[in-house]
Specification:
- The protein is of the alpha/beta class and 236 residues long.
- Helices cover 35% and strands 21% of the residues.
- The protein contains 9 helices and 11 strands.
- Helix 5 packs across helix 6.
- The chain is globular.
- It is an enzyme of class 3 (hydrolase).
Length: 236
């Protein structure tokens, strides 16, 4: 039987085998929520890069560039890290380059060893679960965390995916059980459950409550971003 595992932070990724696995990267506040939203609204591709320098180089080649560090937009770039910025009609058909504090770094770490890299959020949870049921590979959910530390919202997402797939995948490791139990404890009111988490406090100080509420909504879109070469595109 296929297995589903959870890596609570990219700093623990070296402890996990990626050989036969699809890696699902989750950075709920806010990178992967932006990616799902952008592709759902008609952005053609999103190229995730680890560094600001790589992002700037792609911007010079004509990409629209999004750069975030410490939850703030980096000066000189086109887009920030709010999902609402990815809903603009002016972005339809465009190529976007993106770098964020945690999420794009996680994708960079995953792509070296994984069979495929997909992007998960609460926003596309059902579509993602359906896609993964159809695959013959094991799954590793890679929580982006915050600067190497685990965080609540990404772990909750991992638990939600584990809960959705528990009949088709073996949940072997304690990190999966922790995530699944945490999700089942908080699923009836996710915004309240994460209310005093570190990332929520960080975003609230910046006045970004609407991004938090938005990113905790389930199944808004049926888009599954998948990495093809260096670009995330909508899986069809």
């Amino acid at each position: 039987m296929k297995q589903l595992d959870v890596c609570l932070t990219p700093d623990l990724l070296h402890l996990h085998s990626l050989d036969n696995s699809i890696v699902v990267v989750a950075d709920i506040f806010r990178a992967t929520s932006c990616m799902v939203t952008g592709l759902a609204y008609g952005i053609e591709s999103i190229t995730p890069v680890a560094t600001i320098e790589e992002c700037k180089a792609l911007q010079l080649k004509g990409y629209l560039a999004a750069a975030e560090r410490n939850a703030l937009k980096v000066e000189g770039f086109d887009l920030d890290n709010s999902p609402f910025s990815y809903m603009s009609e002016s972005l339809i058909g465009s190529q976007v380059a993106m770098t964020t504090t945690n999420g794009t770094l996680s994708i960079s770490k995953a792509k070296a060893g994984a069979v495929k890299v997909m992007v998960g959020a609460f926003l596309n949870l059902g579509a993602l679960a359906n896609q993964l049921r159809a695959e013959q590979y094991d799954i590793l959910v890679l929580c982006a965390g915050w600067k190497g530390r685990p965080n609540l919202e990404d772990t909750l997402f991992a638990g939600a995916l584990a809960e959705a797939l528990k009949d088709e995948f073996m949940l072997m490791e304690d990190s999966v059980l922790m995530a699944q139990r945490l999700y089942n404890q908080g699923k009836n009111n996710l915004p309240a459950f994460v209310a005093n988490s570190s990332h929520v406090r960080r975003l609230q100080r910046l006045g970004i409550q609407k991004d938090i509420t938005y990113s905790l909504q389930t199944d808004l879109y049926d888009v599954v971003p998948v990495l093809r070469g260096s670009k995330l595109v909508a899986h069809h």
